[in-house]
Amino acid sequence: MTNLVKSAWIEGHRLRLRNATEADAAFIFGLRHDPERNRHMSATSPLLEDQRNWLARYAADGSQAYFIIESAAGHVPLGTVRLYDARDNSFCWGSWMLVPGAPAFAAIESALVVYCYALELGFTAAHFEVQEGNVAVSRFHENFGAVRIGQVNGQIQYTLGHERMLESLGRYRRFLPDGIRRGPLI
Questions:
Q1: Domain spanning 9-182 has what CATH number?
Q2: What is the pLDDT of residues 94-130, one digit of tens each?
Q3: Is the distance from CB of 6 to CB of 81 less than 8 angstroms?
Q4: Is the whole-model pTM more than 0.85?
Q5: Strand partners, 11
């Protein structure tokens, strides 16, 4: 079984994913409570302190990696993404949100960074869910080669196998021409 490991940071071509800390609570809270951003996300507490407490618990949790997506130049926060639910050689990813007006390349590059990092950790597949009605995100994942495998409680279930993951990394290589670099594992 492959394990999820946190990295202090992971850098792609124009993006940097930085391990989330309690200091990021206000940014994450604002993103998760933006009505345009949270339509397809699970509900969260209306209290900023609860977000801060969740991040404190996350710091001690070795079963997931939660990142702030930033611009590589200037480290401007652009969103979040989380890797979790490791099952044998497959990982789940989600909590993927970008700020309004994020650069057009941010979605593709952040997904590529997630897949490159997961492959580096030894994962060979991904599984995840997209809320029914979130057509844009379903289309995005399907363009990456994800396959619908079911639907439960309004969540469309997907899987992305190793071969399709590698094909997508090749197809979208221009967004991540030099692969990734990462900081120390934590």
A1: 3.40.630.30
A2: 999 999 999 999 999 999 999 999 999 999 999 999 9
A3: no
A4: yes
A5: 16, 181
